[in-house]
């Protein structure tokens, strides 16, 4: 019986190696496929892309996002939860409101001055506003 397990290296590149029960490397996942797929899946709904686009301008409360998108608060809250669990946004309490922002590791600006979303495995270039 072969037993396989995965470890993620903390230092270095952060690559994931899959080992067989005998300790030999079976494969090396340089893309961190599981993590990348989770982030891309979270972006798989148009409303979530619209939320990300709004948050590029700075943090916003759930009710503000819902108003801007002309969506129900409960619907926006659901989609923000998915983005939060995929580590694409952060949240904090401000009084009785929950305020969301793009995760600092996701939003970046390239050397050419273009804004993009960096997922570690791939980047999504964002059009200028």
UniProtKB/TrEMBL annotation:
<dbReference type="InterPro" id="IPR036388">
    <property type="entry name" value="WH-like_DNA-bd_sf"/>
</dbReference>
<dbReference type="GO" id="GO:0003700">
    <property type="term" value="F:DNA-binding transcription factor activity"/>
</dbReference>
<dbReference type="Pfam" id="PF01022">
    <property type="entry name" value="HTH_5"/>
</dbReference>
<dbReference type="GO" id="GO:0003677">
    <property type="term" value="F:DNA binding"/>
</dbReference>
<keyword id="KW-0238">DNA-binding</keyword>
<dbReference type="InterPro" id="IPR001845">
    <property type="entry name" value="HTH_ArsR_DNA-bd_dom"/>
</dbReference>
<protein>
    <submittedName>
        <fullName>Transcriptional repressor SdpR</fullName>
    </submittedName>
</protein>
<dbReference type="InterPro" id="IPR051081">
    <property type="entry name" value="HTH_MetalResp_TranReg"/>
</dbReference>
<keyword id="KW-0804">Transcription</keyword>
<keyword id="KW-0805">Transcription regulation</keyword>
<dbReference type="InterPro" id="IPR036390">
    <property type="entry name" value="WH_DNA-bd_sf"/>
</dbReference>
<feature type="domain" description="HTH arsR-type">
    <location>
        <begin position="28"/>
        <end position="121"/>
    </location>
</feature>
<dbReference type="InterPro" id="IPR011991">
    <property type="entry name" value="ArsR-like_HTH"/>
</dbReference>
